[in-house]
Amino acid sequence: MTARSTRRTAAKTRIAAVGAIAVAGTMLLTACGDQTKNNDGASATAKTSTGTSSPADLLPPEIKSKGVIKVGSDIAYPPVEFKDKSGKTVGIDPDLADALGKELGVEFQFENGTFDTLVTGLRAKRYDVAMSAMTDSKERQEGIDPETKKKVGEGVDFVDYFTAGVSIYTRKGDDKGIKTWSDLCGKKIAVQRNTVSHDLAKDESKKCAGGKKIAIEPYDTDLEAQTRIRSGGADAGSSDFPVAAYAVKTSGGGKDFQIVGDQVEAAPYGIAVAKGNDKLTQALKAAMDAIIKSGEYEKIIAKWGVEAGAVTEAKVNGGS
Hints:
Layout: H1 35-41, E1 47-48, E2 51-52, H2 61-66, E3 68-73, E4 82-83, E5 89-90, H3 92-104, E6 107-112, H4 118-123, E7 129-130, H5 138-142, E8 156-171, E9 188-192, H6 196-207, E10 215-219, H7 222-230, E11 236-240, H8 241-250, E12 257-274, H9 278-294, H10 296-303, E13 315-316
Parallel strand pairs: 3-6, 3-7, 9-10, 9-11
Antiparallel strand pairs: 1-2, 4-5, 7-12, 8-11, 8-12, 8-13
């Protein structure tokens, strides 16, 4: 999937700061608002009239009674969320969700969906939250279309829990002279649709001189884009750094891809919650802060080798 616009637009992302899983022996894997009001209302030590509440006490009654939080997610974005060989949903987000569930006394149930339908799924109440390496941006918070800049929805609130940036990758040993985004002019890139990578490619193409625009091929999933690049049908691909680094490390036993240049557009991943569902937002923030404080968050981040993208506290609507 993808990162999901400095990050300039509200594209899908997923997206990351710096990395930590070893790639090709030396590369490390790390992973597309006004906070005053939101953070006041979402304090990790939120209080009721009887004193300090636990995260579970903050949950909306309807979720408490169900014992389940339905999670919309594009489950094809390793290592953030993907299916293992047995078909089980695994990755950074599912592990964090399990830890949050223990704090909240509920089960997080992941439901697969395409990335660009997750926010509409929240509005339609198919999901309680969306957790899918989704980049927190002002446009998403306010329901603004990143291209037209027009309001197309009521927006969502985010509980931020990780930081990620975007990387370009090519076939191994065949970088086509690509080191930066400007080097893509006159070349073809495969990306996941409606991600930060997709937005960056469109923005960069507008800057290309001499009519040498970037040929952009968008796909429903990041894995489809990888297949296109692997076959030689595109010169390069782009996705959140942790995802690109994971592909470099694992695809073809590490023989298919290489990352080129530096990551750009570092921004927070957030759990998306529909506007007006403030109790759930507060509960999620409190639970995230609790697992950070307990050390469970650090263990999960280290398990996936993405320590460089870790945060020290959860924030509400921290994206710009």
